[in-house]
UniProtKB/TrEMBL annotation:
Bacitracin is thought to be involved in the inhibition of peptidoglycan synthesis by sequestering undecaprenyl diphosphate, thereby reducing the pool of lipid carrier available. It is a multi-pass membrane protein. It comes from Heliorestis convoluta. The keyword Secreted does not apply. The chain crosses the membrane at residues 42-62, 83-105, 117-135, 187-208, 220-241, 247-267. This is Undecaprenyl-diphosphatase. One of its GO terms (biological process) is cell wall organization.
Length: 268
């Protein structure tokens, strides 16, 4: 049992640190789970649960933006606003991946959650990061409230790439945001905001399907993972925004290449 707590702590730290970085938290959890021997059905549910903990950190860090969206929605509903990021913008960025994820959920779970597919996702996603990093200097939208509906929808299309494990949701959305004209910081913040409802939907759906395998004995382990992922994700977001503005995306791309090569050579 003690080893289980150690494994849970390691996975939660990795999840919290990588969830919002363009390196694929899902890919890391799949690879690490295989190495630690924690890759059964209950492990998959645990990974979903700690993702929820990481996502909640965004709600606390960006609560003002969510409040602004709510107030704008109650004032004018889904009518396109003249200024500001609205619920309509959020829906535009959400719907492509939500719809495609719903249609392909079973196929993704059955066919794509393997070490080999993660390696492919890491490499292809790294290439996209390098392309986006090269174009980042040309980005013009440097205020979150200046994001257009068209740009939100375009980022939503890029987010569909993250349905492939190892590609990285944040990597796809940040890269997509930069390529449609957002500065890296604004693209990252949009990635964080969009993550909240889509991850709530995904984790809620998976938890409803797998809650029956859990028992009261699992509560302490799951609670430890949830709280750890929450606080580590909080710190990771703050660090990442500073790093992104000063350094860019390229180091994350190189890290992905190195991780993919290392895992392939020594474990596959």
């Amino acid at each position: 049992m003690e080893n289980l707590y150690v494994v849970a702590l390691i996975l939660a730290i990795v999840e919290g640190f990588t969830e919002f970085l363009p390196v694929s938290s899902t890919g890391h959890l799949i690879l690490l789970g295989h190495l630690l021997g924690f890759d059964d059905e209950k492990a998959a549910t645990f990974e979903i649960f700690i993702q929820l903990g990481a996502i909640l950190s965004v709600l606390f860090l960006y609560k003002e933006k969510f409040i602004d969206m709510g107030q704008l929605f109650f004032k004018q509903g889904l009518k396109p606003p003249r200024h500001g990021f609205s619920v309509l913008h959020l829906l535009a960025a959400l719907m492509p991946a939500l719809l495609l994820g719903y249609l392909l959920h079973g196929l993704i779970k059955e066919r794509l959650f393997s070490e080999e597919t993660v390696i492919i996702g890491l490499v292809v996603g790294a290439v996209l990061l390098l392309v986006a990093d090269r174009y980042s200097a040309k980005a013009k939208v440097d205020r979150f409230d200046d994001i257009t509906l068209r740009q939100s929808f375009a980022v939503g299309l890029f987010q569909c790439l993250s349905l492939w494990p190892g590609f990285s949701r944040s990597g796809a959305t940040i890269s997509g945001g930069i390529l449609v004209g957002l500065t890296p910081k604004v693209a990252a913040e949009l990635s964080f905001i969009v993550a909240v409802p889509i991850m709530f939907a995904a984790t809620g759906y998976d938890l409803l399907k797998s809650y029956h395998i859990l028992t009261m004995a699992d509560v302490p382990v799951f609670a430890l993972g949830f709280v750890t992922a929450f606080f580590v994700a909080w710190l990771s977001i703050v660090w990442f925004l500073r790093f992104l503005e000063n350094v860019g995306l390229a180091p994350f791309a190189y890290y992905r290449f190195i991780l993919a090569a290392f895992y392939w050579i020594f474990f596959l």
